Amino acid sequence: NFTAALPRAWGKPIPRSSQGQGSVTQTQGKLEKLEGQTVTLECTFSTGNQYYYLFWYRQQRSGTMNFLFRIDESNAKKNGAGRRFSAEFRKSFKFFSLTIKELEPMDSAMYFCALWEDTMRRLIGSPVQKPTPWAFSP
Predict the structure, then answer these.
(1) How far is 71 from 62, CA to CA, in rounded Å?
(2) Cα separation of 133 and 110, whole Å?
(3) Is Cell membrane tagged as a keyword (predicted)?
């Protein structure tokens, strides 16, 4: 059997020094499924920042924390867990979920949704201006 515990304490706002407050909320509590089934873990979030990352982590019974999935506000994804894991991001609904297919006993763990707010990113510079051609007569 698969058991996922989703800590609700992570839904409390995280104090920020100058950029407001961000928070994540996991409301499902404890989920139980059978081996081979599919489970979807849900997370809602709040942020006032333009740039941010959302993460899913899994904490094994041994205490080891594993990175599973990351997504940013532009929907750029990084899957660190393999083909059985996928994520859905609905920016307008402030919703981020993790789906695990073909559940295995090793998937039983504590799952954490996390938010990282970024104050500035993608500072690339201004566009290069093309030189103005000049013609001189001899």
Answers:
(1) 26
(2) 64
(3) no
* Gap between the Cα atoms of 4 and 9, Å rounded: 15
Q: In this structure, what are the phi and psi dihedrals at residue 91, rounded to the nearest 5 degrees?
A: -60, -45
Beta bridge partners of 67: 57
Euclidean distance between the first and final Cα of the chain, in Å?
88
pLDDT by residue (tens digit) across 49-97?
888 899 999 998 888 889 999 998 988 888 988 899 999 999 989 899 9
**Domain residue spans in the chain?**
2-15+24-118
DSSP letter string, 74-137:
T--EEESS-TTEEEEEEGGGTEEEEEE-S--GGG-EEEEEEEEEES------PPPPPPPP----
pTM of the model: 0.71
Distance CA 38, CA 42 (A): 13
Of 85, 93, 19, whose CA–CA distance to 56 is shortest? 85
Instruction: Please give the pLDDT value at position 13.
Output: 39
The two beta strands, 51-59 and 95-100, are: unpaired
The single-letter code of the amino acid at 89 is F
